[in-house]
Amino acid sequence: xxxxxxxxxxxxxxxxxxxxxxxxxxxxxxxxxxxxxxxxxxxxxxxxxxxxxxxxxxxxxxxxxxxxxxxxxxxxxxxxxxxxxxxxxxxxxxxxxxxxxxxxxxxxxxxxxxxxxxxxxxxxxxxxxxxxxxxxxxxxxxxxxxxxxxxxxxxxxxxxxxxxxxxxxxxxxxxxxxxxxxxxxxxxxxxxxxxxxxxxxxxxxxxxxxxxxxxxxxxxxxxxxxxxxxxxxxxxxxxxxxxxxxxxxxxxxxxxxxxxxxxxxxxxxxxxxxxxxxxxxxxxxxxxxxxxxxxxxxxxxxxxxxxxxxxxxxxxxxxxxxxxxxxxxxxxxxxxxxxxxxxxxxxxxxxxxxxxxxxxxxxxx
Length: 365
Fold this sequence. Notes:
mainly alpha
């Protein structure tokens, strides 16, 4: 058991390191210095510019801002994976959560903090509803969730854009009116503390979501039944578990996490609703984060921070003469190596062969 736990930790670390090795090789082949990439990531993570010897906390704030929706999207995908579902619709669920947060922020008048709490709850409900649709169709008619969620992503995109322009009265077809201060997660103190970054109180619901994810999966009978269905639907059904209900409920909870990500983006990072020409990719990032994190709460949290750091480092990489797309290469390489985890596990066993048990002479007799 200890050995299995050790490999569960070492394999993701090995995948991450191999991803950085691949990116370094690409940079060397194209005539660039990989050191600039690592210096950019260090500055994005710590705020320290080693070359100049300065410290700017703004980079740390932006690092957390980039990480928060990615972590929540990873939780959404990971929760679906636990029951054997591939929720590729996190992007659409996020958009519907964003739309609900826009509606509550502009239409409801409440004092703080009740207004922003209602915004977050509404976003989770909207995301849960959007996740329940493919969950119900999967449970009732065995409609493949991948196909359904991809279709719903496009429905959510164009529905949100139409609502923002036609219902909420966007005059420039780009954004809505500014939200009232009572509906925002932004805080002047956090902005001042991080030298003008967009850091906001969104990290509080993110941390709570990670704890809730862990508690549901590891400490409740509902979480146990979800994992049982994920291992074998027929065995779970024979044990008396309600497989169809678990499928629907897993998509509901998954959609709630994604909807919360939409709210954190809308009333945290921004303070207005946005018309999007295409999806921003948080749903795809969530898939990678869940895979790298092994669908575990703490693993998803750490991998979400890693991917957020890579996004935050992209502008810094450009200032070093390194294309920002190198961050995407690192992410893709990491996911590729995660998909090869059984091969990496085999190599780790070769490098660290299991210790042979020794017996003293009395035991042999």
